[in-house]
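ok so i was messing around last nite and threw this chain in just to see what happens. nothing serious, just curious
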Amino acid sequence: GVRPVAATAPLVLLYCGLTICSDGCSQLQSALWGRLSFRITQRVSLRLFEHLHALSLRWHLNRKTGEVLAVMNQGVGAVATLLQVATFSISATLLELVLTSAVFAKIGVPAISLCVVGGAALYTWYTVALTTMRVGQRREVNGASKRAQDVVVDSLLNFETVKLFASEATEARRYGGFTTALSELQVKAQDSLSLLNWGQTGAMQLGMLGGLLVACGATAGGGMSVGDFVMIQLYITQLFRPLSNLGGNYRQLTQSLTDVEKMAELLETAVEVVDVPGAADLRAVASTCPREQRDVVFEAVS
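result:
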C-alpha cells in the first residue's frame, strides 16, 4: 500500500501544481488585459469627445442628443469587447480544435477526428449563417432603441414646451409607438437566438455521435480497450466544450462590430471649420501685442 502511494504522489502533486499555475496564468491574463482595455476605452472615448467638439455649430444644432449618447456608450464599450473576443476566445478555440484533432490522428483513429471536425464544421457553418441573419436584426433593434431613447431625451429637454402646449399625452403615445416597435423587434431577435442555440446543440451532438460510434466499433473489434474508449469520449467532450462558447463569442463579435459601425460613422463626420495649415496660435500672437490692444473693454453699455 505504501509503495503505490509513493509512486503516484508525485503525479498528484504535479497535477495540483499545474492546476494552480493554470489558474494563476488566467488571472494574470485578466489583470493585464484589464489594464490594456481600460486604456483603449479611455483613448477611444477621448478621441470621440474631441471630435464632437470639433464639429460645427450647424451639426450640433441639428443633432439628436439621445442618439449621440447611445452611440458613444455602445461604441466605446464595443471596442474593447471586439479585441478581447477576437484575441482570447475565437483564436484560442480554433487552435484547440486543431490540436485535439491532431491527437486523434496520432493515437490511430483518424476517422474519429474526421467525424468531430465534420461536426465542428457543421456547427461553424450553421452559427455563421444564423448569426449573419441576426446581425440585421441587431441593427434594427439598435435603431429602434436609439429612436426611443432619443424621444425620451428630447422630450425631457423640452419639458417646458411640452407643458405649455399640454402635449403630455401626445408625447406618451409617440414614445409608446417606439417602444412597441422595439419590443416586437426584440421578440424576433430572441426567437432567432433560440433557433440558433438549438441548431448548435444538434450539430455538436451529431459530431459526438459519429465519433463515439467509430470508437464503439473499434472497441468491439478488440482494437481498443474500454479505457481507450473513455479517453476518446473525454477528448471529444473537451473538444466541443470551447465550441459551445464559439457561438456566443461569434455573436458577441458581430454585435460589437455593429455597435462600432455607428461610432465609426460618427467619427467620419466631416469637420467644417478647420484651421489652415501653418495657422498661428492666437495666444502666441496676443502675447506679443501691447496690453491695450489685448484688452477688450465695453464702454457706455446701457
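not much to say yet. Residues 20 and 26 are 10 Å apart (CA to CA).
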